[in-house]
Amino acid sequence: MGRFHRHDGEHEHSHDHDHDHDHEHGHGHGPDSGHGAELVGDHSGYATGTERIEILERVFAENDHAAAHNRAHFDAAGVRAVNIMSSPGSGKTTLIAQTLQALKGKLRVGVIEGDIATAIDADRLRGLAAQVSLLNTEAGFGGECHLDAPMVAHAIHGLDLGSLDLVLIENVGNLVCPAEFDVGAHRRAMVASVTEGEDKPLKYPVMFRVVDAVVVNKIDLLPHLDFDLGLFLANLRTVNPAAKVILASAKTGEGVQEWLGWLSEPAE
Question: What is the pLDDT of residue 28?
């Protein structure tokens, strides 16, 4: 099924995803995504034609409006928010757990935990974070494969922002859809495991292009893999020359201090 996306230059177009899900939704990405984007590409395969495009424009506008409100809530409370994305199994939750342990007693950190189903990751982080707000997308949000701004607005109600310094938003594990929705965070990061292969920046360029930092995780496994770190970094620089790159092992703690340093840097 074709999807609609807003890519560089704020254009919308349709193309096929390489993941399977049978719900239909529009996608947008980037904090500066526009509402009046020029429409490009061949939409003749869609029987609804311009009607579908107009509906998607309204979806994009609604998401961007909600994202701006979310950022305003964070700003009013003096809270920094970071949207953390990855594929499933990258070690994202383990990195967040390491982050919470390292920041305990230094910063008051809240977590918005996004998953399609279960409280497994949320339960794992309870006791480490000052507050955890669980958001299951199958519970009233259509089982979506990503978080969007209205969902995060709902989850914010589960946090007392006035008593927090930092909010980590753990997005649903997926290398496609989460990258395309501004959720109102100040910065975006992704965790890419060395077990995923060197080609991922080229195969999923939107995800790697929109983030401010890439944590290359599980580097403790490098001696046991045929992973070419230099090729991965070259591929990453092809799609995002400016992203901060942090080599880390959430299991051993290597690179976590550098990650914490990036979290403390002011957003540009």
Answer: 42
pLDDT level of residue 140 (50, 70, 90 thresholds): confident
Calculate the average pLDDT of the chain.
86
The helix/strand/coil state of 153 is: helix
Where is 238: in which H helix or E strand?
A: helix 229-239
CA separation, residue 231 to residues 53, 192, 242 (Å): 39, 14, 17
- Among 140, 137, 139, CA closest to 116: 137
pTM of structure: 0.81
Range 157-194 burial, b when 16+ CB lie within 10 A, else e:
eebebeebbbbbbbbbbbbbbbbbbbbbbbbbbbbbbb
Looking at residue 226, the DSSP 8-state letter turns out to be: -
pLDDT digits (tens, 9 = 90+) for 216-227: 999 999 999 999
φ and ψ of 247, to 5 deg: -90, 125
Give the DSSP letter string of 28-91.
Answer: --STT--SSPPB-S--TT-TTTHHHHHHHHHHHHHHHHHHHHHHHHHHHTT-EEEEEEE-TTSS
User: Would you say 1 and 37 are in contact if contact means Cβ atoms under 8 Å apart?
Assistant: no
